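ok so for the tutorial part 2 we go from a plain amino acid sequence to predicted structure tokens. step 1 is just haveing the sequence, like this:
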Amino acid sequence: MGKVISINISEKRGIEKTSVDEVEVLMGWGLKGDAHGGDWDRQVSILPIETEANVPPEKKEEVLKGGYTENFTIEGIAPEKLGVGKKLRIGDAEVVILYIGKEQFKEHGRPYLVSREGRFGKVLKGGKVKSGDEVILLGEK
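step 2 — the prediction. this is what the tokens look like for a chain of 141 residues:
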């Protein structure tokens, strides 16, 4: 079991997200108020904080000082368990992971990490999510 350490939204694409304490996640859409919501298969982005260990030493300062570009920053679930097809309960919401990373990697700032290690997916069940909420990998014992 893991937990939400940051919730982040932005009204426009391509800009740093703003951290919020709570968000409403809409089924089949994404996070209310976030520009990446919509009827597509990357409604939600999730970054396991443990993946920061994969950033090369020469990039760490630049990547880790940048602002958030993912919707949910989580901790406590090993990234290797967060594969394509896995379902998560995040607070009251449920999501399915459909992609790991992006087709084109970014080379600078936080997007360097998210484009390689971010999990992207769709909302299966809407609900409220608060910072500190549990993240549960569904179907695991």
